[in-house]
Amino acid sequence: MKADLAVRGGTVVTPGGAVRADVGIADGKIVAIGTDVRGKREIDASGRIVLPGAIDAHVHMELPVRGDRSSDDFLSGTIAAAHGGVTTIVDFSVGSPETRLPEEIEARLETAAKSVIDFTLHGEVVGWRPGSEREFAEAVGLGVRTFKFYTAYSRSGRMSDDGVLYAAFSAISRLGGTAMVHAENDAIINALTDGLARRGELAMESLPKARPAICEEEAIARVALIARRTGVRLRIAHISSADGLDAARAARFDGTRLIAETCPHYLLLDEGVYARVDAHLYAAMPPLRTPLDNAALWDGIEDGTIDMVVTDHCPFTRAQKRWTGSFLDLPYGLPGVETLLPLMYSAGVATGRITVERLAELVSSGPARALRIHPRKGAIAIGSDADLVIIDPEKEMVIAADALHMNCDFSPYAGMRVTGWPVVTISRGAVIVEDGKFVGTTGRGEFVPQG
Amino acid sequence: MKADLAVRGGTVVTPGGAVRADVGIADGKIVAIGTDVRGKREIDASGRIVLPGAIDAHVHMELPVRGDRSSDDFLSGTIAAAHGGVTTIVDFSVGSPETRLPEEIEARLETAAKSVIDFTLHGEVVGWRPGSEREFAEAVGLGVRTFKFYTAYSRSGRMSDDGVLYAAFSAISRLGGTAMVHAENDAIINALTDGLARRGELAMESLPKARPAICEEEAIARVALIARRTGVRLRIAHISSADGLDAARAARFDGTRLIAETCPHYLLLDEGVYARVDAHLYAAMPPLRTPLDNAALWDGIEDGTIDMVVTDHCPFTRAQKRWTGSFLDLPYGLPGVETLLPLMYSAGVATGRITVERLAELVSSGPARALRIHPRKGAIAIGSDADLVIIDPEKEMVIAADALHMNCDFSPYAGMRVTGWPVVTISRGAVIVEDGKFVGTTGRGEFVPQG
Amino acid sequence: MKADLAVRGGTVVTPGGAVRADVGIADGKIVAIGTDVRGKREIDASGRIVLPGAIDAHVHMELPVRGDRSSDDFLSGTIAAAHGGVTTIVDFSVGSPETRLPEEIEARLETAAKSVIDFTLHGEVVGWRPGSEREFAEAVGLGVRTFKFYTAYSRSGRMSDDGVLYAAFSAISRLGGTAMVHAENDAIINALTDGLARRGELAMESLPKARPAICEEEAIARVALIARRTGVRLRIAHISSADGLDAARAARFDGTRLIAETCPHYLLLDEGVYARVDAHLYAAMPPLRTPLDNAALWDGIEDGTIDMVVTDHCPFTRAQKRWTGSFLDLPYGLPGVETLLPLMYSAGVATGRITVERLAELVSSGPARALRIHPRKGAIAIGSDADLVIIDPEKEMVIAADALHMNCDFSPYAGMRVTGWPVVTISRGAVIVEDGKFVGTTGRGEFVPQG
Amino acid sequence: MKADLAVRGGTVVTPGGAVRADVGIADGKIVAIGTDVRGKREIDASGRIVLPGAIDAHVHMELPVRGDRSSDDFLSGTIAAAHGGVTTIVDFSVGSPETRLPEEIEARLETAAKSVIDFTLHGEVVGWRPGSEREFAEAVGLGVRTFKFYTAYSRSGRMSDDGVLYAAFSAISRLGGTAMVHAENDAIINALTDGLARRGELAMESLPKARPAICEEEAIARVALIARRTGVRLRIAHISSADGLDAARAARFDGTRLIAETCPHYLLLDEGVYARVDAHLYAAMPPLRTPLDNAALWDGIEDGTIDMVVTDHCPFTRAQKRWTGSFLDLPYGLPGVETLLPLMYSAGVATGRITVERLAELVSSGPARALRIHPRKGAIAIGSDADLVIIDPEKEMVIAADALHMNCDFSPYAGMRVTGWPVVTISRGAVIVEDGKFVGTTGRGEFVPQG
Questions:
Q1: Element spanning A50, H or E
Q2: Given an 8 Å threshold on Cβ–Cβ distance, is D188 in contact with C195?
Q3: I want to staple A389 with a disulfide (CB 3.0 to 4.6 A). Which of A85, C417, D324, D384 is the partner?
Q4: What is the Cα–Cα distance from A322 to A327, expressed in whole angstroms?
């Protein structure tokens, strides 16, 4: 048996554990895992780790925000992703009260067509009203089964109130879909923010006071109750706090079918950065929390409460994030898609906190299962798409924005020393990054329908 | 020692238990409890039960609703109360975004001045904004320490959102006050109601579908979390459902300082009445539930989860409740202040479900403690106000609206046979009801400051 | 009305709260509480606090232990109790595999006949076997309704295994009685003790290692489950640890009808004393715990988890507690009946931690209710036994064994400064302690049947 | 690449999901999974399901009981296992107070040497005393890391009391091992059994009364608390009841590292069989429960609470189980190793309750992980032992003892119609069952050390 491409001699992280094996690829699929697999082209992976390509299941490329856009488009963003070992991204359709969800999905698919890696979409639900349940069914027909809701952001019109959630969750439950929620209590945030504004306390150091952990805890508990009563599968986006994690854990114990996300910045950064002179660059929602919250989230990673790590990649350049004296004027979001895998490998695997198998769950098979695109994606298994990343576990790097490929002139992790770095990225059998260079082609990425 | 008035030979329900004793009264206070107490006037209570006067801690007299008013004013309503053995009512100031809470309290005190029994007020909070914390302090100065919030009724402008609750609870916590909440999820109710309206399903039989128990359960869980995190004492108004009761119980276990109310109609009536031709007369919020909910609430009464039974008295006549074909057009509320004690005695004590001491807790000392007016009110104890009701435990009655004194031409309990009826009511030492007649005077009621 | 005795002008702690009142007594009963009560004899209590006499609901007078006896007999012990404001004690029948419970109760009643204050008994269950359920019914006929079990002490033959508990709890549940349990895990204690013995670690400092808190926590959780499934009312003796208290709290939430005791030594002393040269004098079971456990138990007192404070009075003199080098050779128990009320008043009320009303619940009405002897005992109420203690809240004392009346030549609280001291004790209308002297008579105490 | 053996064209259940693939085997290991794998010998698996060989992780071959032995020895039992698609069994060393655990393991390994499939052992702990912790370390050196305790069976000397558990769990925790517990409350069982014996109620219909679910629930809660406090990983054997399952679920929520087993007979049979004339054949411990318990256990399988299904295979023939009129005289245990996979496939997969991937977890990868022999065992993955079973999903069978190969003349499932049956079994690359015939050799099975 001669494959098109063989990755030979690496430590291959299969669903059944890490094994020393060769991986054979033909027609973009994995066709062999074995001990003597040869290919027309062969890559020597000895001494290296072969992971299923990472899936960054929560990103925002060229996201329209207040007349501006997040600074990576689907081209620059997916090239950067590829450099970081990410072979699939999950972005969002752009919801609006004026348009229907199926149209929004189709429009976004066009925008995403220039991607260099595969992608799928969550359907963002904005301005939806009970009575429009059919939109979800049409979205499912388009291959989108996870629908994103916000319990916050009433002031920018993105919030869904509990009545919307109750109706929408019921409909999505009947379709076998997943409701994904940005869970923060809108009204408390608004009241606290207004109070800070009245008192002129709008420096970055006040940001945590505007969105304390109770906002996340309350909203998670609430949407979990609604999910439980409607029977829908619930995905909680970017859990940031110990209290939020506890609410998720308790909800699951009470019978909620709950999927939990967190992000590298909630694991590795804390509110201490808000005292820095460039604090405004770290503006994200929910805000960064305390070191105790970091530790609680790592516990959640170790004990299985957290199902996946995503980046919520939403970069804005220094120019876009210009500081005006008020955190209310900032665009929110951090660059991250390229550093997901190196950071989690270095802080998780290299330190001994988690195994390489658990890493694969957190950044690849976990998201794939949640999206119901497993085992096409997220697994080194026969018949799966040949999306692979080869990591050199010895390679040390110091994070620096100018060595990265995201269209962003800073990194929140700048100066952090990491151990382990992706050196080859393969997407559906094609080597797209090697020797530090992107060698793929624009638009080669395909939409992955959720099944 | 010769008292002004002695009630002799009855079974007296003191805080220490029911004892055979005489009660001596002078200057409106209880001055003696003993075995040979004589008075200038003496009432023979042998064979009868002497309870502390009932406190109906949740009533709405002459409540302005949509250009109309509930049909009892403070005169007719308190006369009816006196007939039913109630010696203190707790009404509400009438909140408005245009006026300040202290003014609202003062205005309501004027309206209430015609009362024939004592009264105190909860401060209704409507249209309040964070930043006006001082209003609570001023209200405390006026003797009002419990503040009423609605999580529902956004459409009539009465809802407080979670941001208001968080700020207000924090302020009330610092003042040592109590937050009282009508807890139902507004947005779910609105969405379900709109759905029913779209489908033309606005007959009374649809009312429970507009406000299912999850609305109560969710809101109780949410306000309890906010109360727990702000440290405030929380009173949940009129719990109507098993799920709501469970949420209250769980919140208390988690450390919430929680006081739980229910009402006779949630114990004795169920949604079956919505199939009746006069179903619209039973319009109340929350709606009546199922027999399983009745049973769960009785369990809550027996196991101590429920702290008090109140009536939420808010009568509207048949004319006012004229049926137009839609439950949205109705004024909501039921008459009840006069039947509180007889119903609870008959359904609770006469059936053996609860002791007469537990009855006294539920309708007298419980509310008094919650209001911090105990032991001035709510106790047959030395120094307490001489508010007494004498019950004839043998007297049987069939409830009929025209035999009652509330200004309402129907009773939700009409036709119900009860055992035990109040025969003498004494308010601050004055006999105000005897031989079935009111013998007190207009305006004799006094405001009771909460301490 | 002229009573036999009137206690005038004190702050009287009635079940309805503390009021300024006179208390009139005739024929050993309270016959009047009022503002102008006169008596043939009158005691001026102005500036003082009049409490219902304390009930020490867990004491061991002249308890046979290893051929010896605890050093107070029913005469010396009850005289000391009277000095400390205790007007009722609850001791235990002495169980044995050879004798039947009813006989044991009758024998113990004879021994107790010399008491100077009233008393009742718990029935100690030792050597009982399923099949002998009738013994409980006979005990109930004798006025004993609470039955004491040990989950520990298998080596002295006192342990009841879970099979006994299951059968006995079922029988007691049917009789409406209460199961009282010394809850510690026997087998873990034995294993740990044997380990310490093997290693020669039998100094007092090792005692906590022989009986860590998990022993209490596990046993409470276990007996609570058995109680819950059999429906019996469960009283947990002398809770000593935070973990044990948490187990009790959780059991109650799960529906167990649970009554919780603690003792002054678990509130006021900690394992630090085991480093003292006279550490062996502090030998008690369960052992003293840490300051964090003290704090948790005070929280349990404040939040209502703890229902009563008892002393587990079981004194042994220095001679009896002679130190041999091994904690295994000691008789266990501490003197305490005389200091119960002063310590709890001083550490609880004088410090502001609890109100005087809560004190009355913890040491008088709480135990009386648990025993079902309320309101005959445990209340200043009409018709109740005239058991009163008058406390001088200003009186300061330093605890010293030789100023106390227990037959014990040390006090674990020696040197502790207390504020507030009992100055007059009245038992069934008779003044038995005044001016620091006992003025009652031997054998005047009566057995109080539990009803 | 030409393998020794290729299984071609089947639906292969890999850890990453079921895929259509060929499996290549060389030197007893899986060396290739792919689309065009050829071998010297090839087996056509088209239309069939290729599972990792089942691991029956709880069996008792030739178990000495009361002078008798369970009727399968390691030869007959493993041949039967092979027929049923089981490629690894986990038996137990035979504990005794007279011998040391390492000796017991070595002796049992000799007995097991005749096995035709691979095997490993749990170390049965009987008569162990605190102080002998070194025995566990030696056992680990021999490749045994799971240690089996009984909380019941004090009368046959097999019980470990809580002191033993506390000491042993602490030691095993330090070694990174697993404590496995047969969890039933001994003393309650004994008391209830004695009561039944006294009353002469020893027919099979009384068996459930001797061992009600509270026995299992209590023991699980208790050992879980001890496990939690000692940090040990805990495996609960053969959960039989809804209450027991709830206790396991709650313990896990509280932080216990808990692995849960159940058995086919608790899923498929209920206490109704105890009314049959051959009821005694169904004697097992814990006893069969109710249909509600069956349903709760299936829920536990579906929601992930149950980690594995094992048989507790312990056959006795009709002659051995001769009925004497008392359930006390019976040997306990059921035959099952051969029917594990067909029953779970038929009742689980064929009915649609679970996926074939979940089946592989329950009977293969779950046990392998619990034993730390994964991925050597329990996975179709590169480098894993080539233990495979090929199931014909269309094959229908009616269970009948004489068509099975266990040395037992009845089956508890006789007459049950099943869909799906194992047709080829491969052990370390050798076909050992095909065409309904065993074609392996005695003693070819190897011991699998736990790592």
A1: strand A49-52
A2: no
A3: A85
A4: 10
D383 touches chain C (CB under 8 A): no
Domains and CATH numbers, chain C: 2-51+380-395+418-436 (2.30.40.10), 53-371 (3.20.20.140)
- Can you tell me the distance from the alpha carbon of C310 to that of C288, in angstroms, rounded to the nearest whole number? 15
Residue A295: both structure tokens together: 């530790």
Query: Does B216 contact chain A (CB < 8 Å)?
Result: no
Nearest residue on chain D to A37, alpha-carbon basis: D1
User: Mutating which of D125, D133, D209, D225 best tests the C interface, going by the most C Cβ atoms within 10 A?
Assistant: D225
Chains that touch A (3 or more CB pairs under 8 A): B, D
Give dist(CA D70, CA A43) in Å, integer.
56
**Would you mind telling me the total number of residues written for chain D in this entry?**
451
Interface contact flag, C218 D195, Cβ < 8 Å: no
**What does the pLDDT look like over D294-306, one tens digit per residue?**
999 999 999 889 9
DSSP structure string for C3-59? EEEEEEEEEEEETTEEEEEEEEEETTEEEEEESS-EEEEEEE-TTSEEEEPEEE-SB
CB contact under 8 A, D35 and A382: yes
Q: Rounded to an integer, what distance in angstroms lies between the CA atom of residue A16 and that of residue D30?
A: 12
> What is the helix (H) or strand (E) element at residue C123, kind and residue range?
strand C118-124
Residues B82 and B103: their CA atoms lie apart, in Å, by 28
User: In Å, what is the CA distance from C55 to each residue of B11, C440, D356?
Assistant: 26, 18, 66
- Nearest by CB to A191, from B163, B218, B221: name it: B163
Q: Are strands B233-236 and B178-182 parallel, antiparallel or unpaired?
A: parallel
Nearest CB partner across the interface for B33, out of C17, C33, C249: C33
Q: Is B192 on the interface with A (CB under 8 A)?
A: yes
Collect all residues of chain D within an 8 Å Cβ-Cβ radius of residue A10: none
**Contact status of A32 with chain D (Cβ, < 8 Å):** yes
Joined tokens for residue A96: 């609006």
Cis, bond preceding D342 (omega within 30 deg of 0): no
Report DSSP state, residue A112: G
Q: Judged by CB atoms within 8 Å, which residues 259-298 of A form the interface with B?
A: none
Alpha-helix residue ranges (DSSP H) falling in D148-290: 162-175, 186-198, 207-210, 213-230, 242-253, 264-268
Contact flag B192-A163 (C-beta cutoff 8 Å):
yes
For chain B, positions 109-168, list CB contacts with chain A under 8 A: 130-131, 161-164, 166-167
Structure token digits, residue B217: 């359960």
Quick one: chain B helix, strand, coil %, rounded to 5? 35, 25, 40
Kindly calculate the radius of gyration of chain A based on its CA atoms and give it in whole angstroms: 21
User: Phi, psi at residue B188, to the nearest 5°?
Assistant: -65, -45
pLDDT of residue A303: 86
**How many CB atoms lie under 10 A from the CB of residue B437?**
8
Partner-chain contact A379 D1, CB within 8 Å:
no
- Residue tagged 């499932």 (tokens): D413
Which amino acid type is present at position B126? V
What is the percent of chain B with per-residue pLDDT over 70, rounded to a whole number?
Answer: 100
The per-residue pLDDT for C449 is 97
List B234's β-bridge partners, or say none.
Answer: B179, B258
Distance (Å, whole) CA C304 – CA B217: 26
User: What is the Cα–Cα distance from A331 to A344, expressed in whole angstroms?
Assistant: 26
pLDDT tens sequence across D245-285 = 999 999 998 889 999 999 999 999 999 999 999 999 999 99
Could you give the strand order of the β-sheet that contains A54-56, starting from the edge strand earlier in sequence? A54-56, A86-92, A118-124, A146-150, A178-182, A233-236, A258-262, A308-309
Tell me the average pLDDT across D391-406: 97
Count of alpha carbons within 13 Å of B73, Cβ hemisphere only?
10
User: Which residues on A lie below 8 Å from D32 (Cβ)?
Assistant: 32-37
CA distance B4 to chain A (A): 56
